[in-house]
Design a protein that fits this description.
Layout: E1 4-7, H1 11-23, E2 28-31, H2 34-40, E3 48-52, H3 60-70, E4 76-80, H4 85-93, E5 98-101, H5 106-126, H6 141-152, E6 160-163, H7 170-179, E7 192-196, H8 202-210, H9 227-230, E8 235-239, H10 246-258, E9 260-261, E10 270-271, E11 275-280, H11 284-289, H12 295-301, E12 304-307, H13 318-333, E13 339-340, H14 342-350, H15 356-370, E14 375-376, H16 383-387, H17 389-397, H18 418-421, H19 430-444, H20 450-469, H21 474-481, H22 485-494
Parallel strand pairs: 1-2, 1-3, 3-4, 4-5, 6-11, 6-12, 7-8, 8-11, 13-14
Antiparallel strand pairs: 9-10
Length: 499
């Protein structure tokens, strides 16, 4: 790894940082002025630059501007004893990684430099493949299973049904299947055509899918090729198939069965050489039971089913997705990419994301435009993430024990404990009064980390109650709680409920 460069006209600052960084096994090179730094760049470059803002022979802001011209990805930490607004704003506008006010706490300064080093190493890895954007990202086990399934399907043209909540990325999965299939690899063996069957009025959907002959209906001035014709030799992605009108399901079934269809108003059968990939957020089995979806079409589509997990089920992926979206937004807008502080990232990871990956991408685009500094703090996050604090707090501390209760034991609660959790849904709010008394007692007593203590008790009690209700079946307990299988397993380990 390259050395950390420290530039400051104050010899004592250089000495302190050199010694502190050396203890952490960092190589350090120190400079007394900006001129020497620029000269040294002709033969070497740092991993991170730490610079004073006011120095004889050239300011730190001037140095920052020149550094960014030559090494745009280099993290630069600006130090100053003049903690004024203009200095802070100018530093961030110039692309500084962080702003460090003097006098500073040496361990905190070292930790900040360590973060900057980690950032520079990530930038270096990202820079190895410039311009490449991964099709899909995900470290969660469910995503890895999905990637393996796409790999196994890469030599097959079998019909695939993709299920998952709105915004979870079903079209990305369909595009990946197309790209890596015998018909779709290299993007040259056929087109990828997508249609959202729920977004097109019922009267127009038939024409959109199958096309129409000239004069087939009022307004049909010319012949129109439908999506099946447009996708010939490639892939047709039918999104939100669960919302397709019942009468059109019959026509679709016929195409899938015999590979032929007619344009609206047409009399000549047309051959369909198309791979169909369908997707839905609906429970198709329930739609079949309700008589809203043809059972024979369901079985025709449900040859291979891929389930795309909701974002809340893969919290470990949020950080890498957010970074990717911030880089993409910055590239689209031709600006420097924003970075998330640890606290802001923690808030992003804790959010529920009812809109899934699409919502996270929108949040990152919002931050690129609206966040005032290069490093995004909690206060810079959009309103929906800040507003989530109150309901999260209520959820996190519901059903806590009385103030003098002992900590929750790792045993299932009594059968009569479950109704207490249902209180808010059956007209009572006594649990809130109990919560208020418990929290106030702990706060008045000066108990440390009240939030953590109550949250752990809440989570443990809720999980144990769910396990008791499901006779210890974790997957069912997670489903009934509305959390992921991996989440409940991790929580059981963190809370020591296996002990």
């Amino acid at each position: 790894m390259k050395p950390i460069w420290v530039v400051d006209d104050d010899q004592s600052i250089r000495f302190v940082l050199e010694k502190a960084l050396a203890r952490e096994q960092f190589a350090v090179r120190a400079f007394a002025n900006a001129r020497d730094v620029l000269a040294a760049l002709d033969n070497d470059e740092p991993q991170v630059l730490v610079s004073d803002i006011r120095m004889p022979g050239g300011s730190g802001l001037d140095l920052l501007a020149k550094i960014k011209q030559r090494l745009p990805g280099l993290p630069v930490i600006v130090m100053t004893a003049y903690s004024d607004l203009d200095s802070a704003v100018s530093s961030f506008q110039g692309g500084a990684f962080e702003y460090l006010a003097k006098p500073f706490d040496v361990p905190k300064a070292v930790e900040l430099i360590r973060r900057a080093v980690e950032e520079s190493l990530r930038e270096a890895v990202a820079g190895e493949r410039p311009g490449e954007t991964p099709e899909m990202l995900g470290q969660a086990p469910a995503m890895q299973d999905l990637f393996r399934a796409i790999g196994r399907l890469s030599q097959s043209l079998v019909t695939v049904l993709i299920t998952g909540e709105s915004g979870s990325g079903k079209e990305l999965v369909a595009r990946a299947l197309h790209k890596h299939s015998p018909r779709g690899d290299l993007g040259s063996k056929g087109p990828f055509v997508a249609i959202n069957t729920a977004a097109i009025p019922k009267d127009l959907l038939e024409s959109e899918l199958f096309g129409h002959e000239r004069g087939a209906f009022t307004g049909a001035q010319t012949l129109r090729r439908g999506r099946f014709e447009q996708a010939d030799g490639g892939t047709l992605f039918l999104d939100e198939i669960g919302d397709m009108p019942f009468e059109l399901q019959t026509r679709l079934l016929r195409v899938l069965s015999d590979g032929q269809f007619y344009r609206v108003g047409g009399h000549q059968p047309l051959k369909s050489n198309v791979r169909v990939i369908a997707a839905t957020h609906q429970n198709l089995e329930q739609r079949v039971k309700d008589g809203a979806f043809r059972e024979d079409l369901y079985h025709r589509l449900n040859v291979i089913r891929l389930r795309l997990p909701a974002l809340r089920e893969r919290p470990d992926d949020i950080a890498v997705l957010a970074r990717q979206f911030l880089l993409k937004s910055a590239k689209d807008l031709a600006v420097d990419a924003k970075r998330l502080s640890d606290a802001a990232l923690a808030r992003l990871v804790a959010f529920d994301y009812p809109g899934n990956v699409r919502q996270l991408e929108n949040i990152c685009h919002w931050l690129t435009v609206m966040a005032p500094a290069q490093v995004v703090e909690v206060k810079d996050l959009p309103p929906e993430l800040l507003a989530d604090v109150a309901p999260s707090a209520a959820r996190a501390m519901a059903a806590v024990p009385a103030a003098n209760a002992a900590p929750i034991a790792a045993t299932p609660p009594a059968a009569d404990a479950a109704p207490a959790l249902a209180g808010p849904h059956v007209g009572g709010a006594s649990w809130l009064a109990d919560l208020d008394r418990e929290a106030r007692a702990l706060l008045d007593a000066g108990t440390p980390e009240v939030w953590e203590a109550l949250t752990r008790q809440f989570e443990a009690r809720l999980i144990l109650t769910a396990l008791d209700a499901t006779r210890g079946r974790r997957i069912e307990a997670a489903q009934r709680l509305g959390i992921g299988r991996n989440t409940i397993t991790r929580k059981i380990q963190e809370l020591g409920l296996d002990d």
